[in-house]
Amino acid sequence: MLWPGVATAILVICAAGIAPMITGLPIPATVRMEREFTKAHNQARKAVGVKPLHWNQNFAQYAESFASHMEVGQPGTCEFGREAPITSYGMNAVVANLETEAPTVVEWWTQGQQYYNANKNSCASEFINTCRAFLQVVWGASEILGCGRVPCGKDGRLFLCLYSPPGNIMGGHPFYP
Length: 177
What we know:
This protein is an alpha+beta fold.
């Protein structure tokens, strides 16, 4: 039983756009994914001294739509087929199993840091794609992030993040916007 006026107060708080603190309720998957991708990206960016990215829900919906139109190997598989369609955004993509979560995906991309030579501003040629994935995560001029995931094959997912402005600009430096 609620005290008189409590239900009204909760309705007023919700109508004002302030979410009351209710524990024990599950966080919707899209909200959790947003928080996890943003946090993981911004931890990597903080480690190299660049400003954080900001999540944009419309951009995330576009990323998911974009991912759903990528060709991923033969039907029923989760292997990359041909290159992704051309876009004016920066992009990272990876195929993983159903249990893989956002922090792991970003961790995979940031492992490319070991192949980046900051003094020469270049990537080791034999690991250029891995290095470029890292550089896109930490590209200082990028400001907006949106990520999506779509099923592929029987038990896989394609994760795709888009960045704006894009990174990996020829002659540019990742840590200086």
